[in-house]
Write the structure tokens for this entry.
Amino acid sequence: MRAIAVAVLFVTALIGCGGGDGDGDGDRHGDEGSFVADVRPAIEAVEAVLGSGQEYFEVTATPRLVNVFVAIDEATAAVPYVYLGGELQSPAPALTGASGFTFTADAVDFDETTILDAVSAELPDSTIEALSIEGGDGGAVRYVVSTLSSEGGRLDVTVTADGAVLEVDPV
């Protein structure tokens, strides 16, 4: 999974260098809900291309894009897709040596309107950078909100599907 996390950061950085309008919309609290709404359309776009029932290692939404890591070859490799501006981009080359739990689209069952609320309320001076959905045991999912404090510290906050905080880990 560490290879996938590194790939997420690489793909995000690569595409993020393309800029944007620079207005910062979606970067601060109050606007994040808009980017988590892209998770399901990103998964649907992948399944429109590959067929339904795909298995995923991880789906990560940021204010700019959604990274979708599709498990292939009996979950020993992953194909990264980027969903940007409402469109699925061509896949990147497969990442070999992947391992870990996977999940299907029907396991993604979070409340788009509340999943970030508790983190926003508890960390008002932090920026929410991403929501990651990671595979768990038995096809379950884990929701992780990545934050950056105004002082530069980073936290990964594991939340329930409705946003209740379960665990906080410094990164």
